[in-house]
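Input set for joint prediction.
Command: fold jointly, output tokens.
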Amino acid sequence: MKKMIWFTTISILFMLFIMPAIMASLIKMTPADDQPGYGPRRLSIYGINELSQKFISKEKNLTAIGTTVKNPNLKNKKEVVLDLYDANSNLIRKSILNGFNIGDGDFVKFVFDAIPDSQNKEYSLTLSSPTAAADEIIEVFLMDNTANGIIEYTFAEETHQGGIPMVTFHKPENKWEIIKEVYSNWLSKLLSPHSRKTE
Amino acid sequence: MKKLLLIAIVLRLLVSAFLFHPDIKTYNFQASFLKKGVVNIYSYLITNKATLPLKDEFVYFPLTYFILGGYQMVTSGILGSGFDSWLADAGAGSVVNNQNIFKYLAILKFPYLILDIGIAFLLLNYFKDRKKGEKAFILWLFNPFTILIIYAFSNIDIFSVLLTLIAFLFIKREKLWKASVFLGLACCFKLYPLLFIPFLFLKGKDLKEKILVSLIPIFILGAVILPFWSPAFVQSALISGLTTRIFNPGFSIGFGESIIVGFFILSALFFYGWLTDKKNNLFNYWTVFLLLIFSFSHFHVAWLLWIAPFMVILAIKKPSLSLPIFILSALAIAIPMFYQDRSMTISLFRIYTTWYDLLPTPFVVLQKLYDPYNFMSVLHSTLAGGSLIISYHILKKEEEEW
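tokens >
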């Protein structure tokens, strides 16, 4: 019975205090912000209909861009391409996914090699599905306001404020950075005066 | 013993506060309408679906609504003014980032702690031999399975489990009337104890007692649910997917007919008890029935609690079965961890950070190596095989007093 007491106590404490660190060590990238809210307005992307969007990366080591993508009736099985340009319009990264792997309404991440000095720099992305026909569209949502360093978007040669509700992801310097961040987030909530007294 | 009890309580409070399954927020959001004077939650939720932030239906029985809603009324002073807005918050991130979440979870799960400790004390007094009782008490308090099932998954089935155990203890003392009352109360939280009624019927001394002890739970259940009887109640709670899933597995015998495994097992055990086992040891039937139901159905992790007290009794009574029971318990709890549902594993830890949303579930990880459905089938088949042999051991020892 003693063995069971020790086993249970250790396994529960391990799950609560060590497991979060193990899980944190498996995180390969972290988001700069939460995904901004978006309305029902959508843009259809196929063939030459592509979307461009300017944004500022808030952190260094930019390694992925994510947004919500609709693939109505899962008809798009063509390449979906994200090109990333620097402020001088030089193509610096390219990420290609296949529409076959994009569900209708999925949050899709376009991953590329990290850009070490990306903090506070302006970039422009282009999202396209060049070989898709009119019945193989993918759709992206539009935000009602600007957020997450998003500046403007261009579609059908018209430029507007705001853009798609995207999130930038950044590669951490090392695993310990994430582990530290996870525990400090948890402890700050736990030790917050609000968590101990009645409002 | 006191020291062990204290450690057990601390472990439970830690799991209560740090692990979050979204179900606890959903059913407490629904129960919070009692404070606003809503009596029939089933029709209220359906009528107001368009304006409510959480659209789920109330899948539990009325007694659950009144107990949870009443508890919120009592504890509203401690929960604070922000509690209702937290319950109504539909934001996936803001819910777990709320500074008060530890307090909310610890308070909302506190009734489970009382019932859980109550089960431990019932087990302590179950055996005539005090030492065996103490072993059962410790085994209940110190096994990771029930701690996880009750506190991580916010398992509301504990109400039924405690009441069913009380019913069983009355059966052991030959007090069938009291047993049938408690079985009826247990049914008011969850329907599964209704399945024990055929065995209660067998236990009755004469036809009059057999009929009465079988009808009492049905009357109690009827008295509680009839005032709420409506299409909304029937659809949400009575024939919800979770209630009926237990009888889903079956195999076709042609021409639209099929053998429903759950009823097949129930019938086989009933006739075995009637025709073969003259002692009608209900422990055997309840335990074997649940073992086989879990073996042949796609069970919810919460259901595993139904059998947990009986497994503790079995492990103490037959120490040679304790290791196989431990292995089968680990297998049973491992199976739901491979469901595609994130809240079975990774999402339980979202209080620590929402970055865990970026991690793949065990299902996705396994998918890269092997077919996860095949893997789950292997685990489930192993569980079924083991359970079958344990059942054989239980029934073989029918002459023993459990």
